[in-house]
């Protein structure tokens, strides 16, 4: 069990002020400090060798349901600092950046704070939906923008975690293309579909529904904590050891509001937060799975290659996630 972080108290005050500004589009229930309860997290077995790094996809991301324009980057950086996350990886889509929107400065701001940048294609292409040549061209377009930026790493992350699906020819062509370009697959191992939770919050805001802020925080934190322990168990069953886990988040309002609460919960559960550099120095980086469906986390694919069962974390099922959101956040 963890308590509400001091920074979350400040967020409650911020969100309370936002209620009046956003009243026409959002009804957000934010309990007072006295009413704020502890984050409920599942009981798990701690282990001193549990290590995890943080990453954020889709940078820059569209506005969310809670924060005003321009507030997210500063709030996210403060959350990372407060949570003890010294170096996260930001996977950038430069095709979303224009000269007038300030997003380029935001990306550089993340790097200036000690975090690292990497390639996520320019336009967030889905490999299963385009040719290998077009996909590699999208990678190249992103790299043109990224080259010369501070704290750049030679990593590439597949949008949608789609590495070609069942098309082995396309999969192998892109893998060869990445190797030719000197880019490492910036895989993930921990996912709890925060992007879908964000979509549900956006939909609720547009409909003027009341959302329980504490319940939303709890759901976010416990889902990722569960997913981390699920992936740790899957890796031990698959590899016989505990690799460094890489958590997938997106540059959302939810991340900016709750990532420090998540970091605190992970530490209380026995996890050590490490850098993205350390995560991609793990021997798992050289383990390239040969599977029928090239999609999902690296741990899932390695488990599938070895015939290990129970590979999917249940809250990544949108039906399950939607039901939990409705019951706990919307109280429906």
UniProtKB/TrEMBL annotation:
<comment type="function">
    <text>Is involved in generating a small heat-stable compound (Nod), an acylated oligomer of N-acetylglucosamine, that stimulates mitosis in various plant protoplasts.</text>
</comment>
<dbReference type="InterPro" id="IPR011330">
    <property type="entry name" value="Glyco_hydro/deAcase_b/a-brl"/>
</dbReference>
<feature type="domain" description="NodB homology">
    <location>
        <begin position="50"/>
        <end position="274"/>
    </location>
</feature>
<comment type="similarity">
    <text>Belongs to the polysaccharide deacetylase family.</text>
</comment>
<dbReference type="GO" id="GO:0016020">
    <property type="term" value="C:membrane"/>
</dbReference>
<dbReference type="GO" id="GO:0005975">
    <property type="term" value="P:carbohydrate metabolic process"/>
</dbReference>
<keyword id="KW-0479">Metal-binding</keyword>
<dbReference type="GO" id="GO:0046872">
    <property type="term" value="F:metal ion binding"/>
</dbReference>
<dbReference type="GO" id="GO:0016810">
    <property type="term" value="F:hydrolase activity, acting on carbon-nitrogen (but not peptide) bonds"/>
</dbReference>
<dbReference type="InterPro" id="IPR050248">
    <property type="entry name" value="Polysacc_deacetylase_ArnD"/>
</dbReference>
<dbReference type="InterPro" id="IPR002509">
    <property type="entry name" value="NODB_dom"/>
</dbReference>
<keyword id="KW-0378">Hydrolase</keyword>
<dbReference type="Pfam" id="PF01522">
    <property type="entry name" value="Polysacc_deac_1"/>
</dbReference>
<protein>
    <recommendedName>
        <fullName>Chitooligosaccharide deacetylase</fullName>
    </recommendedName>
</protein>
């Amino acid at each position: 069990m963890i308590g509400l972080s001091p920074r979350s108290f400040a967020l409650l005050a911020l969100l309370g002020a936002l209620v009046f500004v956003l009243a026409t589009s959002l009804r957000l229930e934010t309990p007072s400090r006295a009413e704020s309860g502890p984050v409920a997290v599942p009981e798990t077995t701690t282990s001193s060798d549990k290590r995890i790094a943080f990453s954020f996809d889709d940078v820059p991301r569209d506005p969310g349901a809670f924060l005003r324009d321009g507030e997210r980057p500063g709030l996210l950086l403060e959350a990372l600092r407060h949570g003890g996350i010294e170096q996260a990886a930001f996977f950038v889509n430069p095709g979303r950046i224009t000269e007038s929107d300030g997003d380029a400065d935001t990306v550089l701001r993340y790097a200036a704070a000690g975090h690292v940048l990497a390639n996520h294609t320019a336009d967030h292409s889905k490999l299963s939906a385009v040719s290998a040549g077009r996909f590699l061209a999208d990678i190249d377009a992103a790299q043109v923008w990224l080259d010369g930026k501070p704290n750049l790493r030679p990593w590439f992350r597949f949008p949608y975690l789609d590495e070609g699906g069942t098309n082995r020819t396309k999969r192998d062509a892109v893998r060869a293309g990445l190797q030719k370009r000197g880019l490492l697959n910036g895989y993930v191992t921990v996912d709890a579909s925060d992007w879908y939770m964000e979509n549900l919050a956006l939909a609720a805001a547009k409909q003027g529904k009341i959302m329980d802020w504490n319940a939303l925080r709890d759901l976010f934190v416990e889902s990722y904590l569960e997913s981390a322990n699920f992936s740790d168990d899957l890796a031990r069953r698959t590899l016989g050891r505990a690799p460094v886990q890489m958590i997938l988040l997106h540059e959302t309002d939810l991340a900016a509001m709750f990532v420090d609460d998540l970091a605190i919960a992970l530490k209380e559960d026995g996890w050590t937060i490490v850098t993205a550099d350390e995560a991609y120095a793990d021997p798992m980086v050289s383990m390239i799975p040969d599977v029928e469906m090239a999609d999902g986390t690296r741990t899932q694919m390695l488990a599938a290659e070895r015939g290990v069962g129970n590979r999917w974390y249940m809250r990544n099922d949108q039906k399950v996630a939607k039901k939990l959101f409705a019951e706990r956040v919307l109280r429906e």
